[in-house]
Design a protein that fits this description.
Layout lengths: L17 E4 L6 E6 L2 E3 L4 H4 E2 L4 E5 H11 L2 E5 L6 E5 H7 L1 E3 L8 E5 L4 E3 L5
Parallel strand pairs: 3-6
Antiparallel strand pairs: 1-2, 2-3, 4-5, 5-9, 6-7, 7-10, 8-9
Amino acid sequence: MFSKYDTYSDPPSMDGTIRVHADNGGKDIGLIKDGIFTKWGFSSRCVCWKHKAIGIDRRAFEQTIARYAHTILVPEKDTKVVHRIAVDDFQEHCFRDCLSLRIGEQVFCPLLYWEVLQPIAA
């Protein structure tokens, strides 16, 4: 199931964790474990206020996350809020945009479709 030619992730580790990389193949944007993609970040970087949406690198989403995960979690380090959405729901409601942030093309899903979970413990 895992392709060794997938440049947006590393091969699964012994515990089944997959590290997911950004479009340039360098920076890690999150991990997939047990079918859950977790993208950690600060609220100022997780949420695009222009779109009122959470964005994920387009190619990483299409090549890795959509193939190996069923759920997306986005815990915010500063506010401790956790956003959750099923990958199928993300795909259904997402749209593309290439912001001038030098981060490449992103897919965004409006906050309206995300479930907000109880804040995580500090």
